Amino acid sequence: MSEKRHLRWAVLGTGVIANEMAQALRSMGRTLDAVGNRTHEKAEAFAEKYGIPKVYGDYHEMFSDPEIDAVYITTPHNTHIAFLEEALSHGKHVLCEKSITLNSAELERAQKLAEENRAVLAEAMTIYHMPLYRELTRRVRAGELGRVNLIQLNFGSFKPYDMTNRFFSRSLAGGALLDIGVYALSLARLFLDSSPDQVRSFVRKAPTGVDESAAIAMTNREGQLATAVLSLHSKQPKRAVVSCEKGYIEIMEYPRAQEAVIVEATAGTREVVKAGRTADALVYELEDMEKAVRGEGDMMLSCTRDVMALMTALRREWGVSYPEEE
User: Fold this and answer.
1) If both were cysteines, with which of 91, 137, 153, 306 could 195 make a disulfide (CB 3.0 to 4.6 Å apart)?
2) Helix, strand or coil for residue 325?
3) Which residue among 98, 205, 235, 274 is the active-site one?
4) Are 5 and 65 in contact (CB under 8 A)?
């Protein structure tokens, strides 16, 4: 892609994330180039809402459209791999909603296709692109707080038991780990020196057999510890604490955080660190994606692979699988 030309984007899906993406591009002074959806009428309504010039009669057309450079896939987890393979086979750059695939084997297939077709493949993981995390990791890596020793993560919401919705449905790849745990593990991976190589966990399953709640403890070869407590049936704060030798960092609403508090242990001082805006989370993802296509940035696929390996191993241990894996 020429440095002077923006990517020409198509979005697959018309749900919440697709709307956020269209709004993000609008705030950047741009518009989506095309939209496709399984229900054509919804795609037409979406295009009218955002002034999108192209609506595909068959959404598969976006993958081979020569006028499209990149595709944002916003559909449910269990549909991702088929769309990834189709898009990457045609050389499209792909930003795919989390969790990027169901398991590591699917991700390896997608990554191989991306490499073969010289395409950028990335997971839409906000944590890797929010300006706040760039500032916090800069400080940590500069040694301002000393070594990272412990990371504690919570993420929980109360979803009423409705076994037909995506949160608890096996056929829609439901469960806490792929839906919200991916955020917790991604944040842990960002601050850890290496990926955990020892993991212990407890899980409680929903009546459908997917993971409803889990407690996970991890350590890596450097001896750093991380814990994550997740639930789709118990309300918890979205809270992360990164504990270091000289103090700790507390982050609330961490998936799209714009503010953190750093507490220095000896003096007990509290510093509020602000960077970026929660409302611009998808703007940062899109900007970083375009930089990566120009060869100027990193979309953190290596961290995505590490997190996917952890989630794949955890679900195997729990006996949680989806129809596509059987």
Assistant:
1) 306
2) helix
3) 98
4) no
